[in-house]
Design a protein that fits this description.
Elements lengths: L2 E6 L14 E6 L2 E4 L2 E4 L6 H10 L4 E4 L3 H8 L4 E6 L7 H15 L4 E6 L4 H16 L4 H13 L3 E5 L3 H5 L5 H9 L2 E7 L5 E8 L1 H14 L8 E5 L3 H14 L5 E5 L2 H7 L4 E4 L1
Parallel strand pairs: 1-2, 1-6, 6-7, 11-12
Antiparallel strand pairs: 3-4, 3-5, 8-9, 8-13, 9-10, 11-13
Helix pairs in contact: 2-3, 4-5, 8-9
Length: 279
């Protein structure tokens, strides 16, 4: 029996190491629309060019989720499929994947397909993908892999730290004057993914140093103890990601920290210098 782990492109990963024979990994890309231009969030995407186009465009920008047909194409490639999607609180991607599952099972009822709404994105999805890989490699049956993955996902957390508010202003999610003042004052906004899979503002501070300190405090407050890995995604802000990783390792000795650049989709939300922390 073959296995496939498939996720939408907001998971940051473009390949997955350490897969056992008969197990594959694949990505279904979202799209970012800037005026008349469409950027496909795959391995070939020039994220810097996409961000430059967003900065130069004065109108609202948008994203588009993968079609059911794109998901179905991947689902047909294995006997047992674990699919992971960005939170349904931000995107229709989960619904699209569920429609694809129904389409495939109608013609191939022997297949086993599980779709997980991670209620997150970025690094938290990376952790879920790693867990799915490990559960499959442990030789667990399909139903147990699904059950344990769902429990694991419920125990994870995600934090967001924003330093740029241009996209929020352009898309009408923040008052233009407020956005200008926030940028001029070097403000940072820290939020978390709540139980409904939506972003909830936790704190506003000035400067990167205070932002990083608050992220550590927020991790501590949520009960993080260093026993689980952390994935930090950064949007053209590797220095801050490394500083945060150092702070995590100093506070929780032995903590495993992975740093990744944001994908096109998560760059769209995090914007330049933004951080996403999954743990």
């Amino acid at each position: 029996m073959t296995w496939k782990i498939v996720a939408d492109s907001s998971c940051e990963l473009r390949r997955l190491e350490g897969l056992a024979p008969g197990v594959s990994f694949d990505i279904v890309p979202l799209k970012i629309r800037v005026g008349e231009r469409e950027f496909v969030d795959n391995a070939a995407l020039d994220t810097a060019a996409m961000m430059a186009a967003m900065g130069n465009y004065n109108g609202p920008t948008s994203t588009a989720c993968p079609s059911p047909e794109e998901w179905a194409e991947k689902f047909l490639q294995a006997d047992q499929v674990i699919a992971l999607t960005i939170t349904s609180g931000l995107s229709g991607t989960y619904n699209s994947a569920v429609v694809a599952k129904e389409m495939v099972l109608e013609s191939h009822p022997e297949k086993k397909i599980y779709v997980l709404d991670t209620l997150a994105t970025g690094g938290q999805m990376v952790l879920d993908i790693w867990k799915a890989r490990d559960l499959i490699q442990a030789g667990l049956p399909f139903t147990q892999v699904c059950a344990e993955l769902e429990i694991y996902n419920q125990q994870r957390h995600i934090l967001f730290a924003l330093a740029n508010f241009d996209n929020l202003v352009k898309n009408g999610r923040m008052n233009r004057l407020v956005g200008f003042v926030a940028g001029a004052m070097n403000m940072r906004a820290v939020g978390r993914g709540n139980e409904a899979g939506k972003i909830e503002l936790l704190h506003k501070t000035r400067g990167e140093t205070r932002m990083l300190a608050y992220l550590l405090e927020a991790m501590d407050h949520s009960g993080y103890d260093g026993s689980n890995p952390v994935v930090i995604s950064h949007c053209f802000n590797e220095n801050a990601a490394r500083l945060l990783a150092g702070g995590i390792r100093n506070k929780w000795s032995g903590a495993q920290v992975e740093i990744l650049p944001t994908s096109g989709l998560t760059s769209f939300y995090a914007e330049k210098q933004g951080l996403i922390v999954g743990y």
